[in-house]
Amino acid sequence: MPDTPVIELRGLEKSFGAVQVLHDVAFSAYAGEVTALVGDNGAGKSTLVKCIGGTHPIDAGEFLFDGQPVQVHSPRDAAALGIEIVYQDLALCDNLDVVQNMFLGREKHSGLVLDEYAMEELAGKTLAGLSVRTLESVRQQVSSLSGGQRQTVAIAKAVLWNSKVVILDEPTAALGVAQTQQVLELVRRLADKGLAVVLISHNMNDVFAVSDRIAALYLGRMAAQVRTCEVTHAQVVELITAGRSGGPGVDGAVK
């Protein structure tokens, strides 16, 4: 088990005008592990992720990456560190194929022309490295893909750039049972390859199926961050809905 988190937040504060959304939040994510970020609607999950990703500047607190203090003022800063976020809308272009989507905005060139061969080869290697076998071709139009295949392409796009942290926003929300299983297996493989994976989910079955740790937000505060094997389904639900749990193994609950 790694000792130093890849991402560690201490005392994070974030307000929008007079409304304080995050209060003294502590959060960590470790290499080789899946950390599930859970909480009810309005708990602050999206704001926390956007602070990590540089979309929202933090008002106060420390942001450490690989144990070193960093300043993240923009998504470009986050990407430079190796933080990639796959939002729920996936940000894929239906009129482009898989390769074009994976390299959108980061195209490879040979002289003045696009290096289509290099991009196609790297896209194929990335998908193969993640054991993705559900795509017929990397030249398929994204408009022809299923929901699970689209999610796979978006995740592969995120790990293409030597990322260290991949944050997934509700990756199984709109998927059927079989596609959900495929995506969860991919999430687990990302962690097994050494990445720190943050999984935002409302689905407790998904959370317990793939996560190593669970971080529960309640009304903008971190109710607890615990190892998944040390808590029950009911305890996590209580953390989400009440900000506390009376059971053993749950430390740091909000009183």
Automatic annotation (TrEMBL):
Keywords attached to this entry: ATP-binding, Nucleotide-binding
Keyword Nucleotide-binding: yes
InterPro entries: AAA+_ATPase, ABC_carbohydrate_import_ATPase, ABC_transporter-like_ATP-bd, P-loop_NTPase
Stored PROSITE patterns: ABC_TRANSPORTER_2
CDD domains: ABC_Carb_Monos_I
Domain called ABC transporter: residue spans: 7-244
GO MF annotations in UniProt: ATP binding
Name recorded for this polypeptide: ATP-binding cassette domain-containing protein
